[in-house]
């Protein structure tokens, strides 16, 4: 990251007002729908806020756009190497996400994240647009989707409609996994505009 413009905070500040305006929502109305305070939203739009996972996912759900339309991602081309040490972490209740790559293929859009659920903690989501895919790399992960609970171990996969309420928990220790969010291309706010995941402005590093 070379500066705030390339950070998650900077990217969200650049895009939130644009997306909100496209949706025809005032800050007051967005606050009412998202349950995020007006002062917090104003700070986020000015680049002074400190967004969490919960905030970003709530905005994605209410504005009905992929996460990367808020974090400013683009389809990469050619060889792309993403170093974990260079990726800014988006943290929230019980979980840390590192945005790695956005992939567009036909009518499908995918966002790839390195996901870590912290030991003994849980993350709840009211739901957001898209289909969610998770592959556990290490640890034991408890996933609950619309009241249905499953236990996953290293190598296990789960996929579900992300609009349903869901949660991740790591009761026995820290869990590492790959999170893949899948969208239809028509769910993007502006498919024709250039986008960039934080740090993906060069072929190497994110």
TrEMBL record:
It holds the Pfam family HTH_3. Keywords: DNA-binding. InterPro entries: Cro/C1-type_HTH, Cupin_2, Lambda_DNA-bd_dom_sf, RmlC-like_jellyroll, RmlC_Cupin_sf, TransReg_Diox_bact_type. Residues 16-70 form the HTH cro/C1-type domain. SUPFAM superfamilies: lambda repressor-like DNA-binding domains, RmlC-like cupins. This is Helix-turn-helix transcriptional regulator. It comes from Streptomyces spirodelae. The lineage of its organism: Bacteria, Bacillati, Actinomycetota, Actinomycetes, Kitasatosporales.
């Amino acid at each position: 990251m070379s500066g705030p413009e390339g950070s998650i905070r900077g990217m969200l500040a650049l895009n939130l007002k644009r997306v909100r305006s496209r949706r025809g929502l005032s800050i007051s109305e967005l606050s009412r729908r998202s349950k995020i305070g007006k002062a917090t939203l104003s700070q986020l739009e000015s680049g002074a806020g400190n967004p969490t996972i919960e905030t970003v996912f709530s905005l994605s759900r209410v504005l009905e756009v992929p996460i990367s339309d808020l974090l400013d991602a683009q389809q990469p081309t050619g060889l792309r190497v993403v170093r974990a040490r260079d990726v800014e972490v988006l943290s929230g209740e019980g979980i840390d996400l590192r945005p790695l790559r956005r992939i567009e293929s036909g009518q499908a859009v995918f966002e790839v994240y390195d996901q870590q659920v912290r030991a003994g903690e849980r993350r709840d989501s009211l739901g957001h647009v898209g289909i969610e895919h998770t592959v556990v790399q290490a640890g034991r992960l408890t996933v609950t989707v619309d009241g249905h609970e499953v236990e996953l171990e290293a190598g296990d996969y789960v996929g579900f409609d992300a609009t349903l309420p869901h949660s991740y928990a790591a009761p026995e220790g820290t869990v590492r996994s790959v999170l893949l969010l899948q969208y239809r291309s028509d769910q993007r706010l502006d498919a024709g505009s250039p986008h960039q995941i934080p740090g993906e402005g060069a072929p190497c590093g994110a």
